[in-house]
Each structure stands twice: as C-alpha cells, then as structure tokens.
Amino acid sequence: MNNPPASSTLCRFTPTDMTSSQRTELTKLPARCRALLASMLAMLMLAQPLCASAADWAHKKKFTIDTTTSGAEIKEELSQLPVLLRLHSGNFSFAQAKPDGADLRFFAADGKTPLKYQIENYDAANELANVWVTLPKLAANSKADSLVMAWGNESATAAAEAKGAYDAAQIFVYHFGGVGVVKDATDNGNHASASGAQLQAAGPIGAALTFRGSDRVDVPASASLKLQPSSGFTFTAWVKPTGNGAGSLLAMGDRAKGLRIGLAGVTLNVGTPAAAASTATTALQAGIWQHVAVVVAGGKASFYVDGNPAGSAALNVGELSGEAVIGEGFQGELDEVTLAGTARSADYVRALALSQVADSPMLSFADEEGGGESVSYFAILISSVTIDGWIVIGLLAVMAVISFYVMISKALMLRVANRANDAFLDVFKNKSTELLSPGHADIDTVKRDPRSPQSSIYRLYEIGLFEVSKRFEQQSKAGKEHKLTASGLEAIRASLDAAMLRENQKFNSGMVLLTIAISGGPFLGLLGTVVGVMITFAAIAAAGEVNVNSIAPGIAAALVATVAGLGVAIPALFGYNWLASQIKNVSSDTQVFLDEFVTKLAEMHAD
Q1: Where does the chain hold its CATH 2.60.120.200 domain(s)?
Q2: H or E element: which one contains 245?
Q3: Which of 275-284, 360-369, 584-593 is predicted least confidently?
Q4: DSSP state letters, 402-425
Q5: What DSSP designation does 292 have?
Q6: How far apart are CA 42 and CA 65, in angstroms?
Q7: What is the dihedral of CA 427, 432, 438, 439, to 10 degrees?
Q8: What angle do CA 275, 278, 284 make, to 5 degrees?
C-alpha cells in the first residue's frame, strides 16, 4: 500500500523537520513566543491525520444517505447528526484494514473534508464493527448526501476521537461497549461512578446492559450535567423491557424537585414529584428492542418510539442538576442511552433512530469507484470463508485431484488395453491353430508386435501357452506324444483363472478412491458447512449484530464447503460408473477368450 502523500507542506511539518541551527534560534525566542509556537505545532500535528483525502487510501466505500420518502423521510435540514455505520463482511473487507481499524477514515461526499468519528467496537476476527460518524449537515428530502469511508494505509495512525464528535448540547452518550465502569462517549467525561447492571454482548448495537430491578447506573454531578427549562432536553435510548413492574430509565435532581423518565409496564412516561406523569400514547412491546425518545421543551413533553411520534402532554420542568441515575427499578435491557441539553426536533429524533436500526432505510453502501459495475458474488463468498472452511475445502481439493488422477489414468489404461485386445483377437481369430502350436513362427510374430504387451488377453494367452509348452517339453523328454489330459486342461484353466483375477484386480485398483470421494465428499462438505454456520451464529450472538447483511455472507460462505463436496462427488460418481462399465466389458472379453482358448486346446491336443 502507498503511504499517504502530503496535501500541503503545512501538513508535513513536524518539529523533527527543523535543523539543529533552527532549533538553536528557537531557544533564543521569548518564553511566551516559544509557548505559543509549541501550541501551534501541537495543533498542526493533531491535524495531520485529517490533512489527507480519501485518495490517499487504497480502498474506499461510499455510503449514500436517503432522506426522501423512500428512506428516512426527513423534512428539515439537520446538523451535527451522529449516524451509525454497521460494518460487516458484506460491506467491508476487514482483511484489507489494520487489525484494530486504525486506518479507517471518513470524508464528506467530496472525498476531502474529514468527518469526526468514533469506533464503538471493532472485531476483525468476527468481521463486525460499529462506527459512529458525525454528519455536519444533512439535507432534507434528498438522495444527494453521502459520505466516503476509506481504509488501507499502513502508515496511518488511529484518528477516532470523542472530542467534537457530538455538538455542545450533548451532555452524555453511553454505548455500554466496554468492561468495567460505564464511560461517557462525549468529551464531557460524565462517566458513571458505579454500575450494578450486567454487561451482555447481544444488544442492538454491540453490547448492552441488563437491569434486574435492583440494578442501577449512577452518574455523579458535574458542571455539564445540567438541564435548563429555556433550552429543554432530549433523552434517547434503546429499550427492551420485560413488561414487569415500574422503573425509571433516567432520574435527575432530588426527589422533591427532580425529573423521572420511566416505564410503567410497557408504557413510557415522564414526570416530576409536583406533577402527574405524562404518558406516551403508543405502548412498547415486551421482549423487543425499540428506540425511544423523550423531548421536553416549552411546557410540553413529546414521546417517540422507533422515530415515530407517540403522543405528547403538558409538562413544566424547572432547572435540574446534580447526579443522574439510570435504570433504577427497571427490569429489562438498555443500550445507547443519551441525554442532550436541547430539544431535538422530530426529524432529528427520526433520523437518529432510523440511522441506527439494522438494514437502515436511511443508509446504503456502494463502491466509491464502482461505476455501476455488478457486485462480484464470488469475491464476497471467497472473502467470507472462515479458516475451518478453507481446511475442509483443502481436503476436498486433495480428494478431487486424486479422483481425477484415478479417472484419467484408468481411462487411458482401458483405452490402450481395449485397442491391444482387439488387435490380438483379430490375429487369434484367423490363426488360432498356429498360435496354439508351441514353437510355431506366428507366435514370435505376435510377440514382437509392440501392442501385445499392452493387451490383457495376450498376457493370459502367454500364460496358457507357457503351461502347454511346459507339458509338451516334459512329454518330449519322456519320448511321449504331445497330448493334453483332462487333468492337464483343468490345471491350465486354473492358471488362466488366477491370471484373469489378477488382471481384474489391476483394472480395479484405485477405484475405491472414487467410492470414497463419492460417499465422503458430500459429508465432509456438510461438516464444513455446519461448522461455518455455527461460527457465524456464534459471532452474531457475541456482537449483537442481527441484520441480514451480517448473516448472509457467513452463511453463503459456509455453503461453499457443501458445494465443494458435491463438486468432488458428482464427477467421481459419473467417472466411477463409466469406468466400471468399461472394466466389465474388458472382463467379459477376457472370460470369452479364456473359454475359447481352453476349448480349442482340448480340440487340438486332448487325448
């Protein structure tokens, strides 16, 4: 991969670029000037990762944004909107990036303007990642907006950061992605002081927290943890309630003047000790992940479920400060809990919710330089095959090579043998008397034919003629006439039967490898598929990613092993049946010759 070229001389400058004389001159400057210059250099060095454009990275992907009626249906322009990009093997090649995703970068549609982003989780082994990218502007009712993801740069360093990823009104954001203390993803640092909730991997966006009624997350008071009635506030969260009892999702302030956003069973409500709780008109579903939002401003509380309005009611709230408590008395699961010190618009809440759902109608991806080319399904399959799948496919490839070797070698052997047998049988048919008379000149003529050693029938003929010659030699030494007794003919036939058995064994040698490929190939492929499916579902369960784009590549790649098994078995099956029929034909011709050979011997030389 190429190192990123500098966009300007300014971007390339570092303190180490100065000569020793320049550094000496620098020490002569007043202390105030040196401090100012050091600050400027530090800012330039921090800005270096953002100086390059998408062109400096080896790989790019464009994410298009649809705010029309076919997408998120956003009717007003939005700013500083954090959107979730779910990366998986279907839309991102983890093998082309650094193991920790340090070379990931995000740019506006022009491919040059860098965008702030955060990596919530990055699992290269299971090929799943969740990245939050902040859009400075989002046009209403448009398909023109997009962002560019770039990766593939060995010299790139991590550039993801919380600072600036959220606007100044965002008070806290909890992804619940880490182990231990719950961390605030904003630069306010409103980290939890204590958490009794249990961390679980399978949330709607990575990890989530499970609350059992007695669990809670405590967030200590801070200067930024304050709500003003003049600006209002917005609370959002992913909620999976059990439907049992009543509990709070967020509580702030003291019990006399505080605010409580909670659930009564599956009904969302918000209230204060001084006023009756306002409730949403749309009830939640127990055991289902749903995105909820509560916006309080101008003496009114508005509810949203999955980005859609769910009712509103009058609610007056004074200034709130102090510690915050999440999940007290709540039974169920929570993820992506956020609080902003401003009243977000209905379109903002809708865009926030729809950008976070699996298979978002708002976000879709395409190759940045694809030019409308079709997707390479084969490349997706190959890139998604796991190590265990490659092991199975490797074993099947070995079986395939052996099978094709056996089929090709046997086919050539049978072809040569059939031609040689036909040539010898033509001669034997016309000169059987001469060829059955030991010492005749025609026997040497046939023997000198280069095709004769390749004939299985000729090899039987040689054995039978040798048996006849041996008996005639013994009779000549004893001064007897050349004759074959009945027992002698039986002995010759026994020798020919044994020779024919060995010839059949020679033709059938290696055929068992084809039967192994026929029966074992599909089962070995099925084993690879089952293991691949198990790994895919285990990875999904661990990462909490349950959309079709994350499941499909893994399942499709797992099925490659079964296809490979069938690809080995089917040719082997056809080849085995054809070879078996050819071997049977040769055996039949040999058997016919054996009977004819013995019969003519008896006719010519029997007592």
Answers
A1: 170-341
A2: none
A3: 360-369
A4: HHHHHHHHHHHHHHHHHHHHHHHH
A5: E
A6: 35
A7: -50
A8: 150
**Using CB atoms within 10 A of its CB, is residue 388 exposed (0-12), middle (13-18) or buried (19+)?**
middle
Task: Find tokens 């008070």 and name the residue.
Answer: 171
> Quick check: 262 and 211 in contact, CB under 8 A?
no
With respect to CATH, is domain 170-341 assigned 2.60.120.200?
Answer: yes
Question: Would you tell me how many other CB atoms lie within 10 Å of the CB of residue 549?
Answer: 16
> b/e per residue, 28-64, with b = 16+ CB within 10 A?
eeeeeeeeeeeeeeeebeeebbbbbbbebbebbbbbb
Q: CA-to-CA distance for 601 and 465, rounded, in angstroms?
A: 10
Q: What is the pLDDT of residues 8-66, one digit of tens each?
A: 333 434 444 444 445 555 555 566 555 555 555 444 444 444 445 556 788 888 889 99
Alpha-carbon Rg for the chain, nearest whole angstrom, is 41
Instruction: Say how far apart CA 116 and CA 108 lie, in whole Å.
Output: 10
> SS3 for 143?
coil
Please, are residues 166 and 201 in contact by the beta-carbon 8 Å criterion?
no
Task: Note the pTM of the prediction, 2 decimals.
Answer: 0.58
pLDDT (0 to 100) of residue 372? 39
CA separation for the pair 93, 87 (Å, rounded): 9
Q: What is the mean pLDDT of residues 301-323?
A: 91
Phi-psi region of 306 (alpha: psi -120 to 50; beta: other; left: phi over 0): left
Chain segment 413-469, per-residue pLDDT in tens:
999 999 999 999 999 888 888 888 888 888 889 888 899 889 999 999 899 889 888
562-584 burial, b at 16+ Cβ within 10 Å, e below that, comes to: bebbbbbbebbbebbeebeebbe
Question: How far is it, in rounded angstroms, from Cα 224 to Cα 218?
Answer: 15
d(CA 338, CA 170): 8
3-state secondary structure 20-78: HHHHHHHHCCCHHHHHHHHHHHHHHHHHHHHHCCHHHCCEEEEEEECCCCCCCCCCCCE
Q: What are residue 208's phi and psi, to 5 degrees?
A: -145, 175
CA–CA distance, 582 with 592 (Å, rounded to integer): 16
| Residue with token string 């082309």 | 96
* 3-state helix vs strand vs coil in the chain, percent to 5: 40, 25, 35
- Write down the residue that tokens 């050979």 correspond to: 597
CA nearest to 313, candidates 271, 350, 376: 271
